[in-house]
DNA sequence: CATTGATATGAATCCTACG
DNA sequence: ACGTAGGATTCATATCAAT
């Protein structure tokens, strides 16, 4: 029954239909990433007037109406269960919400077996102020990033995100503005098409951090299509679900105008693609290193001899390049590729350089060491 | 049974005992504010090694051990129920947690009838990095600020917090560093006394925003006593509960060394204390305004006549000072005190100035209009 | 064209004391 | 509890008109 759709048929389309019913027709273990922006169940009443007397137009859509927490909880349990089934074993899911609903979502997800990796805070740089001075300005929304289990081998493009964050590891609080200006979809009357269109920068961070080129990304609440737009731009595939045809119409047009850029080192996560494994034995066999030659540290000290097994020896020990360097440094472990040098033309050369030379000459692999620094 | 303790007897003390059992002995509707920093149920396993090989000392205390979510949920339901009973009708409660537990807490609180006012993000300016590069640096904790019902008339010192935030309304994301240096309690060996001591700045924001001088603040998980220390410094009363006598010993000494500063305009919330109400009729009776005199706007236009009822009239209408100004401005309502001026010695004087003159001369009340600006 | 100022608006659980 | 009158309350951007 869960196979009405074949993945290739629905790839890069927005399916028009009820969220839960549509999810039920998507096969098990079939998508790499899910981004879900469900209704928040805001529970606002009446009209909020700005200081100057005009009305604030917030969310007053039918799709955000639920009778009580119980109804909202069953709704969320149902779609989150389907997502669990549809997500691949090592895939991950992002769900965005605010204080009105995110505690329902998080509780339900943990009970369904999801494992929270981070709760990411979207710190809005330009939030709607609190007109009446009754509370702290509500300036944040929350995204729960989860796997299907504690031991899932999820994708996290650590180096790409570090590069995007001025070469410091990216934190769980993201400062991003609201979706306004040209990015915000408007209808013929100049009114916003969707009351809660998410900024592309938010989706960019989500997709670049936790998916790879060619991955399949599912959005069960596609709305104005931000997920699809960013997925296409970064070379990922998407599957959208949306019950309002008007939204689909605008989203389709929006996505059609996007160009994929897979030669972009940020979008294709070059920094995080691991180079092919090359051992000391391979370098020996191919003449990049010689049996019996001397390894030195960067100060030309701690000389050791390379054995035919690709180990390093001195009168006391024969150890791997890693263990030998760790022993010298009195640490439990250490990366020998960064520690050891050999002599070529009377100059010290890092064995890591020799390894990359081999990768380039024999495996046609060019490592990307760094990209131009991004100034935020 | 819920009356073993009389509030005056336990005021400004830390009760040694089990949290839930002790809470049961505190009377109904007896405290103004609760701050709770419960165990987070971190579920960490094994030892996390830093890059250089040393061990990271996180939370590994017995008090953070629970067998599963079910046990944690019942524990939290129990103490949150007692807090609901103990809190006054218009009091409020803060609960701090992180992604491991805050979704359990929020869900349970909403189900118990608590009404979330804000979810405050503590954005740590100096978080522990993610040593292994496996996720985004977990840089935030969350505080849920709630009342007992949607309609509770809770305390929020809006102007004090605005003043503390460089004269802009304070938002829900707070940038505050971890508790380190001299503020962090150390034992005789130089080890930290408590593994999760909260920074005073965090508690300062909590207490200054949502309580008044003389209020009673309950902390069911007193730990190292930060709540008590800040409560005492700002002129509030506290009641602490803690089951570990070692913590109480350090907390008692810490709090004993604090001096109360109630003459501090920030601590006593002078900016938020409302001036006594004075109507136009009072100013008329006391000769600050005269029947029949002319009211003008700031440009000496829109002249209206003051009636014996304290209203403003023109040939068409007789309205309150507020309604009349709103009519002129074509707004649904407006503050007439800021809009209208009268002539004294041929100069325009704001009627709000006259009102403050009356307050000063007859009610011995001096309004605080502003404090020196705080540069953050 | 550059600069200034007025206006519009964004996932919002948005007043309070008194009779 | 409920209705009514009093009177207190906004920040960061984008757009567009005016200078």
**What's the alpha carbon Rg of chain A, rounded to whole Å?**
26 Å
Helix content of chain A: 25-40%
The multimeric state of the shown protein is: homodimer
Poorly predicted ranges of chain A: none
Strand composition percent of chain A: 15-25%
How many domains would you count in the coordinates of chain A?
2
For the termini of chain A, the CA-CA separation is: 49 Å
Task: State the CATH class of the largest domain in chain A.
Answer: Alpha Beta
SS element count, helices of chain A: 12
Compute the number of strand runs of chain A.
Answer: 14
Largest interface: A-B, 51 and 51 residues
Structural class of chain A: alpha/beta
CATH fold-level assignment of the largest domain in chain A: Rossmann fold
Main pleated-sheet profile of chain A: 8 strands, mixed
Strand neighbour order, sheet with most strands of chain A: 1-8-7-2-3-5-4-6
Order of helices and strands of chain A: HEHEHEHEEHEHEHEHHEEEEHHEEH
What is the 3D shape of chain A? Answer: elongated
CATH-defined architecture of the largest domain in chain A: 3-Layer(aba) Sandwich
Global mean pLDDT of chain A: 95
CATH superfamily heading of the largest domain in chain A:
Vaccinia Virus protein VP39
């Amino acid at each position: 029954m869960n196979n009405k759709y074949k993945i290739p048929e629905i790839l890069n389309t927005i399916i028009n239909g009820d969220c839960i019913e549509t999810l039920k027709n998507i096969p098990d273990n079939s998508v790499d990433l899910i981004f879900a922006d469900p209704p928040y169940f805001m529970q606002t009443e009446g009209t909020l007037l700005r200081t100057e007397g005009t009305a604030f137009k917030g969310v007053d859509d039918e799709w955000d109406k639920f009778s009580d927490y119980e109804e909202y909880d069953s709704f969320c349990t149902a779609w989150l269960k389907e997502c669990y089934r549809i997500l691949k074993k090592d895939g991950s899911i992002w769900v965005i919400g605010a204080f009105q609903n995110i505690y329902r979502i998080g509780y339900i997800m943990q009970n369904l077996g999801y494992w929270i990796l981070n709760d990411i805070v979207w710190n809005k740089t330009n939030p709607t102020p609190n007109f009446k001075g009754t509370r702290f300005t509500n300036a944040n929304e929350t995204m729960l990033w989860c796997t299907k289990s504690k031991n899932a081998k999820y994708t996290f493009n650590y180096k790409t995100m570090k590069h995007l964050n001025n070469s410091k590891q990216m934190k769980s609080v993201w400062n991003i503005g609201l979706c306004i200006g040209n990015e915000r979809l408007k209808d013929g009357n100049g009114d916003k098409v969707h009351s809660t269109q998410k900024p592309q920068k938010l989706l960019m961070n989500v997709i670049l951090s936790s998916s790879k080129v060619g991955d399949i990304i599912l959005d069960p609440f596609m709305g104005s299509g931000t997920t699809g737009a960013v997925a296409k731009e970064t070379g990922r595939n998407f599957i959208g679900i949306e019950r309002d045809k008007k939204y689909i119409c605008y989203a389709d047009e929006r996505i059609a105008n996007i160009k994929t850029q897979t030669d972009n080192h940020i979008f294709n996560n070059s920094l995080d693609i691991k180079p092919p494994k090359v051992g000391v034995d391979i370098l020996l066999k191919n003449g990049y290193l010689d049996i019996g030659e001397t390894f030195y540290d960067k100060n030309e000290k701690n000389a050791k001899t390379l054995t035919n097994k690709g180990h390093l020896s001195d009168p006391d020990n024969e150890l791997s390049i890693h263990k030998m360097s760790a022993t010298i440094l009195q640490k439990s472990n250490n990366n020998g590729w960064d520690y050891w040098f050999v002599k070529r033309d009377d100059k010290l050369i890092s064995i890591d350089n020799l390894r990359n030379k081999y990768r380039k000459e024999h495996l046609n692999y060019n490592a990307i060491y760094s990209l131009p620094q991004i100034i935020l």
